[in-house]
Structure formats: C-alpha cells, structure tokens
C-alpha cells in the first residue's frame, strides 16, 4: 500500500492501516511520530518532541546509533516530513497539549511502537490479503499499538472539534515493548499536573463490544542484557589459556532459574536469548544473553533483579571472565483508581456499540505503570482500560489483527469518560 | 582480480592466487574442483569426480541443499566450465590417476577447501594489497589449502612432463576443515592399492626453507551438532507450560566440561557455539550447540564422544525436551612410517632451497588421518610432511598468508620423494 | 524424671511431661502407643493397634529394621507394658473407639511422634530446668505432639466419665513429621464412617487464650529420598574409571531448584540434606539426598514431584550412574468445613479461658490432610483447629515449649465442640 | 593383642604387628612416636620431638584440639611412656640423629601414620586371623607405614651395632596421608645438611623380591576443605529468606570438574566428600566439601588450585553465602638422582633375597616430595625406593597386608645403600 505523507485527509481506519503497513519498532518510530505530530499541530495542539517528550537519560534498550540512523533514513525515504524528523533529534515519541477550558487536566496515553517480528504474509492474514501488511521485514504491529496511536489521534480530533472544559494531554509513548519508553516519558514533566490519566489497550482476547474498565495488577518486570567477555584459545592446544565466556553463561543460566521462590508472592525468571559464536575448536571469548525477571510487586521484582545480578556476578567470577549488564527495559506495578474506573464504566455503558463491561487483571507487564504511578504520586487518578477487538490470533503472534470497529469504540469510550471526569459535567 | 576460466596457461603462482581469490568453503569447492579437473584431464590424467571421488554416504557436515545450490550457481556465474560441474553432481573433490610405468602406486593428498571466515581487507595484508584477497565474503584460504591444491597440480604437471616408473594418484580432498571430507574420500576405493601416500601442509609457523619430514601424532577429534527442542511458553503467564531447551543446553554445557579426565592420556572438550533466540519473555523452545571432543588416541576420543552423548541425553531428560545430534566431522590419529619419512628427508636434503629438515608433532587434528590409516591398513606406507612458508600470521587468522616459494619447494620435495620411493630409483 | 509405667493415676499435665521426657520419633512411638493404649482400654475404649490402626502397605519413611528394633527394646527397657508392644507388631499408632449412644460418630485426631532433633539442655529451657527434657538424645517433642496426645487422652477421660449421645473415635497418629503416618492411618478403614473429624494443633505462635477455629489451606508436600550409585575410582590414576555419584547429585540439585515456577500458584522445592563421603582422592560412588516439593494444590505438588523425578533421572543419565528414589512422606491439601468451624467457634466462645477466636492459614504442610479428605470424601465434615500456647520459641526449635494450660483448653474446646456437633445437643 | 610398652626386647616383625594393631591416623601418632623415640634413645640416638621435629606453623590438616587430646589420652591409656608424650607437646613425629664417623650425612625417611578407615575383621584377612588387626575402630595401617616405621628402626638398630663412617638421620614423618606432614618436617632444619636422602615405600603391588630403585614423578597435589555458610529458612514459608549453602556447593562442584584441561600436561580435580544436613524443609545454611587438585608439575597443580579457588568464590557470590577454605594437605613433584638410584640398585643386587630391580613411576602423590626437594635444593641427592611385598589387596583397602619379609629386605637394601653412598666405601 502506498505510504501516506500526511494524515490530514485520512480516516482513522485508513491511518491505522497506514501505520500497520509501516510498522516501526521501539525507538525507531520516526515516521509514526512525525506524521502524528504534523496532524496534531494542524489540529491546534502544542506538540512536544524529542527531549521535550521523553527524558533522554532515562531511555532504556535503545538500538545502536547505526540502527537508529537507518530507521531515520528509512522514514525519510518513505516521505516523512523532514522538519518533524529534525525536531525529534533522533528521539521518538510525542506529547500533544491543548487547553480547551478551565477544568481538569486529563491525559490519554497510547503507545506507538511495533514488535520485532515478521508478519504473516499469506492470505489467511487479513492485513496481507488486503494489502496493508508491514512493508518492513521483521517489524510488525502484533500488539495493536497501531490502533492505540490511532485512537489517541481520534480523541484529539474529537475534542479539536467539540472542545471540553479542561486541558487535554495526549501521550504517544515510544518503545513500550520491552518496557523501555514508559519510564523516560514519565520523567518528562508532562505528567505531573494531570488530574486524571487514561491508558488504553485493544484486543486482550476479548470480543468486540466488550470494554475492560480496569485492567490492572501487572507483574513488575525488568529486562537485562548481559555480556560475558573472556579470552579465546585453541580448545585442542591450550584450553587453559582461554577464559570461557560460554561456561560462565551456562553457569549463570542454570543458577538464574534456581533463584529461590519468594514467600510473599509470584516471581518469574527467564533467559530468552543466548548467543556465543565460534568455531568448535575455539574457547568462547564472548557470550551474550537476555534475561527477564518479574514479581507481583515492585519489591519482589527488585528481589529477583538483585539476586539475578549476584548470580551473574558469581558466574563471571567462577570462570574468570568479565561481564557487563545493561538494563534493557523495566516496568512496575499499578492499581487503577476506583473513581476513574467508574467513570469509564459509565461511559462504556453509555456507548451503543458496547455490550459488556468487565474488570480483569494483567497476566504480563506494562510500562504505562510508570505513567500511572507518576500521576497517582502527584495526586491524580488513573485507569488502564481495554477495548475488545475480537483479535483472531494472540498478541505477539504473526497473525495478530483486530476488528477495526474497536478504534471507534475506543475513541467514543475515552472521549465520553473524559467528559464524565469533568466535575462540571452534567452526565455523571 | 579477474577469475580464470582455465588453468592451462597459468603459472602455479597465478593459480594459487586465483584459488585464493575465489575461496570456497567445505563441500562448496565447485570452481576449484572443476578447474583442477579440466587441467588434469588436459595433462592426460583420468579424473574421478563426484561419487567416484568420495563416498557420498560417508560425507559429514554437508551444508543445506540451498547452500550447496547457491555455491554451485556462484561457481557457474564465475565462468566455471559447466560440464565439470555437472559431472560432480553436487559432490566436490577429485581423484586424478595416471599410469606412467610398472613401478609402485604412489598417492599425493592435498586438500582444497577454504575456511568460513572473513579475510582481512586492509593493506597490511598482502592478498588485499596485491588484489587477490577472497572475493567471497566470509570465505578465506586462511589455512593454505590454496597452496596445497596448487602443489598437487604442480606434481601432476611435473610427472606429465617427465614421467616416472609407476602410477601416480592425486587426491584433491574437499572439506578438510571440521574433518568432514577425509573419511568419505578414504572410502572411495582409490586408496586401497597405494604403495605409498604423501600428504602435505604448508606454513606450520616454520620459516621458508624448512621441511618437516614427519608431522604426526594429531589428536583424534569429533564434532557434533546438537539441537534441543522443547516448547515455548509465556515466561510470565505460565512458565510451567514451556519445555525449556535453553535450560537443557546450559545443563549440558556445564556438565560436558566436567567429563572426567582420563588416566590414559589427553582428552579435550569444547562447546564453540550456542544459539537460542527468543524475546526475553518466551521460554526457549529451541537451542543449538556445536560440540567438539578430542583424545590423544582413537579410544580416548571415543570415550569423550560417548560420555558427551550421555551428558546431552541426560540434559534433555532433565528438562523434558527432545534432542537430536549430528556428526559434523571426525578425524583419527596416525603415525608416519619411518621408511617414507627417510625418503622425504633425503629428497628435502637434495633440494637446493631447503636448509633445514625436522620432525614435529601436531597440536590439532587432521582428517588426512583416515587416508593415511587406509593406506597403512592396506599394507602401504605414508607420511604427512610440512613445507615452511614463513606465514606472517597464524593459521585460521584473517591475516594468514604464505611465501609462495613454498609451492615450488613443495613440488620439488614431493616429486623427488616420489622418485626415491621407487625401488628402481638410482637416487636412494 | 522417672518414667511412668502406667498413666492411670497421672494427671494430664504429668502425662504430657512424661511423654515429653520420653520423646519418640516417627514409627518409634512404642512407649507412647502402649501407655496410651493401656489407659484407653482401662477407660473402656476398644483399642486397635498395629495393622489394625494403620495400613502397613501405605507406610512411608519407615526407619530400618534395626532402628525400629532398637526403639522397641528401648521402650521395653523403660518399663513399657510388653503385652501392648507385642500387639503392635512393630507398627506404632492406635485407634480407640467407644459407642456412648446412637448419635453421630465423631473423630478426634492427635499425632504422637517427636522430632529427630536434640533438645536444649540449659536452664533457659523450662523442660530442662524442671527436669522433664527428653532423655532420648536426638529426639525431642519440639512440635507439641506430646500435648496433642495428652489432649486426645483428656477427651477420652472426659467422655468416659460424662458420656454423650454418639460414638467417639480417637486417632493417635504416628509419624506426622515428614508426612509419613497420615496416609496409612487414613487407609485404616476407621475414618470411613465418621460424621465429623476434629484435628488439633497447639502453639502456632498464638498466645494462650486464643483458639484457631479453622487452620487450613496447607501446601501439599512430598518428600523423596534419593540415592545415586556409581563406581569409585582413584581420582589421580584413572578418574575416567569412576562413575561419579556426586557429580550427578550436584547436577540434580542445581537443576531441581530451576524447575519452572507454575502459573497456577505457589510451588516449592528444597534439598535439605546431601551426603557423599569418601577420601579426597576417590571418585564418589554414592551420594544421597533428601528432596522436598510443595504446591498450593495437589496438582501443583504433583507437577513439582513429576518434574523433580525427571531432573533426577536426567542427572543420573548424565553421569552414567544408577539411582533409586523412595517416597519419604507425603501430604495433601484440605479445606475445613464451615459447619464444623462454626461449632468450634461456638464451643471456644463458651470456654472461659478463651479470649479470642480466629481463623488462619497454614504456612507449611500437614498429613492430617489425608484423614480430613477421607472423612470429607465419605460424606463427613471436619476442621483442623489450633490452641494458642504462648510457645516461647518457634516450632521445631530446641527451645520449643508450651503453656500447659493449653492442654486443658484443648480438652474443653474439643469436648464442647463434640457436644455441639451432636444434632440432639441443646447447646447450639 | 597385648600392647607393647617398650620395643626393647621385640623383634622387627613383632614391632610391625604391634604398630599395626595400634594404628594411629595423622597427627595422632602419640604411641607410635613415643615408643620409637624411647627405643631410639636407648640405641644412643639423639631424638628430636615436637616442634623440634616439625615446624608447627607449617602443619596442615590438623584435627581439632578435642580429637588430638583424645588420641593423646588413648595412647596414655595404652601404656605409652608419659615422659615422651609430654615432650611431644601434642605434635607427633620424630627425628633421630647419630654421628658415627666423619663421612657423609645420610637421611632415611619413613612415615608413620595410619589411614582413617576400618580394617577388615574377617578371617580372610591375616591381621584379623592372627590377632593383630587394629584395635582402633576406623583407623588402619592400610598403606604399610607400620612397616616403614619398623624399617626405619631396623636401620637404626643395624648401625647402632655396626656403625659406619658418617652421620645417620632418621626421619619418622607424621601425617603423610593427605600430604599434611611432609612440608612441616621439611622445614625443621634437619634436612639442610644432608648429603643423601633415602625414602622408602613397601608394597606398590610388586612381588616380594622386587626392589624399585627409583619410584618417582608423582603428581603434585593439594587438598582443600571448603565450608559454605548461609542462612537457614523454612523452605515452604519463605525460601527467599535463606541463603542456600547447598546450592552454592552444588554450583561449585558442577563447575570445579569443568575447569579447563591444560595444554602442558595432566591435571586432576575431585570432590571426595560433601555434607549438608538439615530436615527436608530447611534451606541449608551450611555445606562442607573436601576438594583435591593435582597436576603433573607444580605449576599445573597451582593452576588447578587457583582456578578451584575462583570457582568456589564465584559459587558463594552466586548464592550470596560466605565461605572459608583451609588447606588440608599439599605435596609437590620430584625426580630422583641417578647417582643415588645406582647405589640403591647395586645394594639391591647385592642382597640375596632380591631377584629383580626395576624403576617405576608414581600414579599418585607423596609428601616426601618436600623432603627430597629440600635436600636437593641444599645440594644433596635422593631417591625414593620401593620394596615389593606381595600385598594381597591394593593400598588403602580394608584387606591390605604385606609379606613381612619385605621389612628385612628393606633394612638390608637401605643399610647396604648407605654404606655404598659413603665415598670411602670399598664396596662400590
């Protein structure tokens, strides 16, 4: 499908498909950010980009400079407006603000990044069949963030037209996958004066017509990249001369899974990726791995993270190798506020296309947690809500897709909830 | 450098540089085999190719069909004579035979494959500086097999011109790296009637002018590819639903290195490569590794291989995963025969360019071992000889190169040794 | 303190101290069983002993024949009535039954075994100070079962005197520690016709005056003894000749702790004891370990047990050793019945010495679970209740003791609850 | 058998049987040392005991004070002369010196300790059958040191009677098993002026009549005791609160065996003993293990020891536990001197009962290495010689015994060799 160069004349469904077709993974969302920013400014919003939208020093899991540069060039080659790319200064994500009246300041958080995975390209998959599958090999909107960004824009359009008695702040958060962008956006300063925050997710394996007014209690999560560095040696001639990074990694893996369960609640540990690559006759001088820990509370997650660091440190000592760790991403826990949940429920019940309103819990993790906590710590309230989308295949799979009606429902429920969060509202 | 399409008018030094520039890794030596075969037939040798040169059922570590096909197409695109490629039937390597007289049947074994590694491309490296570095990314003659093949051809040319009282058999062995081609060539049937065999290696960190009349006692070696196959699962939601291939691999690695040392002599174990690749939040469903064992005798190598298989089997059981193993390559041990060594020494001493003759031992492994053993088991005698080449950098490194005079010395010493192995020779 | 040879003229407090002083660990309770049986028969109860009290084929974690014989001889030497010891036929534990009227059949389960640990012998510990610390080195009533048995006898005395409209069954269960005696007693057949069952525990770190009407939701538990058997060898001369049982044990331990957490709830794994004993220069031919798994449901416990067996099997395969496993003990989960809980609460509130009635959950495991489940499966109801005893030191520690008033409260609450469980009771 | 209280009137064979019957393990040889010392002083030798015989600060693997005291009391109870025990000041071992003439100073080293193992007590074992099996449970002369000490005394008796032109020094070394006493005796100062040293071993699986003139090239060896110390915790309630010493030990064991083999020669690693002892439901707070490393050179042994320390350190870090290590024993390598070997060979050939003289190599380790090296470093020469004894069962086994003729052969060969080491000797 032909890439849009502006969203001005496009419908929300067209925009969602355009974003789907040009999926950009975390910290590579140049085109997505720029096109959203251009449209938002056109709608009258004040748009903050780059270091004005996320705190650069808090960014985690940022790809190499070369990868970021390649993503930027790709976006420009696809017709992305260069002025916006320039303003971003290689930092994706946007915050859009507009004061419509004296009432409360209300935020809407939508994430915008794609996953690093290949989309299915056969006719069983509607995006492929109808020509809007991702043209970027190895990048795919397999978690619905294309719809999220579109919903955020839909809310912007609605209020640009209708107004409301308050200030609207739209957070288009980058790099949610892996929990890399939530913390830096939460430190941007833009959250601190919010009275209320709504975050939204589509899909959740719920049917279209179902709204989740409170989707909470995720596991806190941390992801750490580890590199063990030793010395190579000929495995036949003088194996002793090596410092075996792979032995260290194997010892670490074996013992990471063995970190003691915790009496206070759920904990998790996983090593998702390991790589060491030499000929068979060379003692491995480098081994990398990607580790993830979780806990049902912040403290349990910190317990796992602390113990994991000890295991990694000990494994390196054991095999006389050096190591480095880098935090790839991190999320925390949150609980939604009853008062906001109830407004969402009222809004959902008032929406024609909604036939069921439920509350559920997260199985996984979310870095909206940092934004929600920031708002709550500053005295505001929040909920994370879900919009059923009859997704035909699970999140993160190659065949993930949504019923696009979910976008309309999302915009309607959120705009209605925002109106109802206004104390001067007559529709409580 | 422009690829030759025939070796007829080329000098040995030119041929070596042409082979160096078009390095082909194991089981991909289509161009090398074809050009050598064409020239050998032109010289009057009977050339056996494909299944007539190596026993297909004994081949180890053969790349995938796609990789082999790509190598074949590359060779054709570089102007390799198609008729020879066709005769090979996707099996590289060649045996060339010519009967010159009634005397003994004498073999010369040279290997022809390159390594899977990138060649240095800067001016510190003569092949790069003088324009004959490998044009095949990731493939490089870093072990001197380009010189070996050239020496074999040089011997063929010398006797085609001068003749001698006996039969000459030239073995251009594929896939020596990893020990994959020696066994299948040893089973070709062409070794069984040899009276004597000479195998040759250049370099060995010896200076030009030094000849090693006996280079023996290598470690026996076996390389095994292992794949553990489990089930993926979400590491946060239901880690129990996974069958963790990476945990199995880590347990295997930890315990492979712990296989008991042996009272009878040297043993070795190494895992050179491991790969498992998932997102951090997915229990690994597949992990692969490349294992190598060695022993200073065949039995010690078998002890290590047998114990390694037990460890791998147990690791899979532990973590309830399936596994498969494939023998990637294998070598055995050998000892050279004193009678042949002495003829080589006499020949070397009779060669002007030679100023020192020594005997040394292997640090590593060699699949010429299978050819040498085959000859010895059939009643013949053999030696593995070395030609110093003042190599500026170690074998298998990106800067490996040779003093090309070694090619001339190699041809001279081997042809002279062959003459002296003839009992009717007057030059003993 | 001088050992009693009959309980006839002793007060409950004297009996508790006598039992405390002659602590007998699991399956060694010869004296305890015999003295209780003699007294119960004197009170008019029909007493079942040996195979009539527990199903011998279901017994777990039974000490060796030599150890059992030594315990039997010790009991006889301490003046235990030989006739009762003979009737036991080396199987400890007793069931006492008396029909007082036509009303319901109600059971009381108390356990009678001591722990295998040394009691504190200094004056900070009242049993030592006042002369009733255990005279059996390495055996101690550190979990209050001396009080439990006494409470059971107290209930028997009360009803022998007062009667009630129903049948009373008293279960004096052996070998609760480790979860070894509950299953075999539950299979005795005596549980199947119970209308209600009350099980009791003292202490629980609650103050005297507190009664726990429902103490439930324990973790299911299984304990397994493992022996790895290999071959010894001289570690210097021919380490290869060994089959290293210790390496197998170490691999097992490392990987047991690494069994994946379960998405459905709490799981636990521990290795409490390991032993391998050779000179430093001998490859270990035998290693033993004691493993424990738990789960918050029966299925989770079975998941852990099944996975633990796979890990052990794989570890043995890895190191080419044999192994055997033996189930040392096992418990399951249970939930108390609301109707019985409420009767206990009413009874407790009616007891002067009780000032607080609460409900709590188990942190650990209990093999009363099998008796409770058996009753519930047969259509009866049950609760596991607790009697606060202001224990000065935690359960299983060397300084564990109780406020003996808890015995009186226990008898009072249980007898009152039994009366209230009688539908013809006027005190509901 | 009745214990001797003096060796004065006893034959060598009687003395050997008396020592055999009262086997004393390393650093417990109170009776052995005292009776030898008394007899040596009676023969006119100057006897050094306690800190005058071994350097106390260099002692390794010394039992606890309680164990040493118990051994001392046992010796006294067996009638050992108290004056000698007092002079020893709890340090076993003796050096006896006598100057007979102006010639060279020649040393004879014999070790005196027993093994910590139970002797066979059935009639298949001659010491049991004939009534001189060890009366000390768990201690046995299973390596022939009873014969060694006797040979040393025999040499003393011979020269006391016959004299020779030189000075004789007899080293009765304690605690050879485990390599604990050689180093401290080598630092006593008594070795430094030796011209020649003869050390002797009986058995070696050689038949009676065979003498080994040079028994050398042992593996260097180090033994280390390791204790991991963590924190206990209830494995069900709060496993996280523990610091698991057993997990640390298991990780250490797994990785100790995986220390890389060395290109320069033989290395060895073993863990002979592990102990952790808790109930199944307690996270282990303490685990101990006994580790041994070896190398065919001093440097290789140090390589193993250094790497083992890193593995242990890393294992402790991994599981957040503390640890301590203590060197239990240590030996080094040595080579015998040709000149001394030849004198021994001449002496053996001159001995009637000798029918074969050979040279062999050690499979194991010996702490005579320190004495031999000390002599060689001071300019002297040495050999370690062996006396075949037709031992019916291997060294260190419960059925080890010797043909006692070996004692006579030992005395004869050594005294004759000493005479021949005298340059003024006429019997060269």
From TrEMBL, chains A, B, C, D:
Pfam families: M20_dimer, Peptidase_M20
GO terms for biological process, alphabetical: folic acid catabolic process
Transmembrane residue ranges: none
An example Gene Ontology molecular-function term: dipeptidase activity
Superkingdom, taxonomy of origin: Archaea
Keyword terms of this UniProt record: Manganese, Metal-binding
Name of this protein: Aminobenzoyl-glutamate utilization protein A
Phylogenetic placement of the source organism: Archaea, Methanobacteriati, Methanobacteriota, Stenosarchaea group, Halobacteria
């Amino acid at each position: 499908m032909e890439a849009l160069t502006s969203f001005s004349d496009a419908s929300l469904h067209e925009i969602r498909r355009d974003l789907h077709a040009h999926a950009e993974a975390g910290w590579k969302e140049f085109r997505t950010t720029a096109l959203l920013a251009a449209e938002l400014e056109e709608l009258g919003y004040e748009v903050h980009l780059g270091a004005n939208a996320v705190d650069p020093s808090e960014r985690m899991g940022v790809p190499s400079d070369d990868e970021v540069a390649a993503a930027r060039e790709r976006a420009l080659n696809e017709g992305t407006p260069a002025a916006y790319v320039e303003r971003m200064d290689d930092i994706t994500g946007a915050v859009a603000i507009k004061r419509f009246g004296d009432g409360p300041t209300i935020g809407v958080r939508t994430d915008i990044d794609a996953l690093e995975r290949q989309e299915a390209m056969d006719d069983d998959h509607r995006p492929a069949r109808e020509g809007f599958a991702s043209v970027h090999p190895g990048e795919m909107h397999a978690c619905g963030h294309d719809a999220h960004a579109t919903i955020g824009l839909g809310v912007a359009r609605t209020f640009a037209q209708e107004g409301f008695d308050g200030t609207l702040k739209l957070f288009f958060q980058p790099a949610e996958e892996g929990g890399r962008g939530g913390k830096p956006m939460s430190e941007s300063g833009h959250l601190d004066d919010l009275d209320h925050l709504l975050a939204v997710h589509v899909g959740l394996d719920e049917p279209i017509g179902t709204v989740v007014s409170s989707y909470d209690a995720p596991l806190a999560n941390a992801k750490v990249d580890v590199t063990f560095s030793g010395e190579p040696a000929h495995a036949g001639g003088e194996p002793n001369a090596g410092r075996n990074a792979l032995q260290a990694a194997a010892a670490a893996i074996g013992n990471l899974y063995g970190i003691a369960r915790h009496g206070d609640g759920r904990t998790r540990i996983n090593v998702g990726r390991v790589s060491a690559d030499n000929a068979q006759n060379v003692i491995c001088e480098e081994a990398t791995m990607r580790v993830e820990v979780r806990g049902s509370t912040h403290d349990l997650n910190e317990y796992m993270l602390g113990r994991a660091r000890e295991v990694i440190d000990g494994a390196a000592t054991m095999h006389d190798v050096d190591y480095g760790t880098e935090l790839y991403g991190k999320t925390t826990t949150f609980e939604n506020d009853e008062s906001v949940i109830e407004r969402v429920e009222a809004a959902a019940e008032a929406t024609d296309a909604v036939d069921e309103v439920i509350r559920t819990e997260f199985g996984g993790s979310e870095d909206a947690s940092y934004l929600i906590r920031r708002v709550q710590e500053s005295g505001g309230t929040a909920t994370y809500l879900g919009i059923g989308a009859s997704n035909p295949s699970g999140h993160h799979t190659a065949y993930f897709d949504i019923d696009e009606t979910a976008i309309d429902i999302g915009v309607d429920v959120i705009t209605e909830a925002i109106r109802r969060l206004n104390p001067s509202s007559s529709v409580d």
